[in-house]
Each structure stands twice: as structure tokens, then as C-alpha cells.
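Just wondering, can you check both lines?
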Amino acid sequence: MIFEPFPPFVPNGFQIKFAVERWEQRGAAALRRQVFCDEQRIFDCDDRDAIDEIAIPLVALSSLAIVHDAVVGTVRIHESGSGVWWGSRLAVAESHRKVGALGSALIRLAVSSAHARGCRQFFAHVQSRNVPLFRRMRWRTLRKIDLHGFEHHLMEADLDFYPPFAAPEVGFVALRKAA
């Protein structure tokens, strides 16, 4: 008799929040390296840049019972000028991409928390394959550009769709979408 291994456990709920603990920040950095360096090969060894010095990392945390155990999604945000905010490096662990809620929850927290901090415009460079998700979430393409050898869209969020959220350090729970 051959035993098949159990598929990886994927919880139904995830905490979406600012990465305030050191292990959360390290997990976000590791996930970015996994997605942007190992999987997509956009960067050689590390995707860190000068924006990381001023950016606020956000994370999606999986839980076992009531204890958070891993960073399974991340994005970073930063203010580039008065009221002008950017989101970048959105990544979801390969094992959790079928959850169907993590990328959109991270985007929602990113824009809503910036909105609570005085954001008047929120932009992102979005890989072309992710544009449909952003369009469903009320973003519009301003123009197409090439970044790191990949086509991206410079996109802007419709802030009316993202009410200010003033408690990003605590965040909120995102539930897995039904199959």
C-alpha cells in the first residue's frame, strides 16, 4: 500500500496587518525573495532597495489554532510626497495563492491604511498578469511600462473604494474564498 502525503494545511482565515514584529518583517522579506528572486527571477539574490528604508511592510499571517505561524503574503507601502503613496512588492506564497483572498486583502489594507494617513493618491506598478485583480478592485491603468524586463501597468487606486482604516497594526481577518 502506498501512502500519499497529506496536502499542506491551509487555514480558512488569515490576519492581514502591518508587520510590527521582527519575525513578521523577516518573513515578509523571505517571501519576497522567494517570489521575486527564486520563482520569477526578476532579481538575482535580493529584491531590497532604498524604498525598504522608508516603507511599511504589511503581511498576511496564517495560523495554527490561535497562534500565527507563518507569513504567507506581503506588500509594502510608502509615501513618496505629501499625500502621494505607493504600494509595491505584493507577494503571496505559492502554497496559498488558491486561497483567493490574500492579495486583495493586502491591497485593501495597503490603500485603506494609507488613506487614514492622509493619502490623496495611491499608485502601484502592477505586473500585467495581475491587472485584472486590480481592475476588479477599482484601479485604473495610467500607462504601460517595462520594469525589470517585465511589462507592468502604472495604476492608480480609486480612493472612494477604500475607506480610511486607522488600526493597521491590528488589522483584520480575511477569510478563504469558497471553492
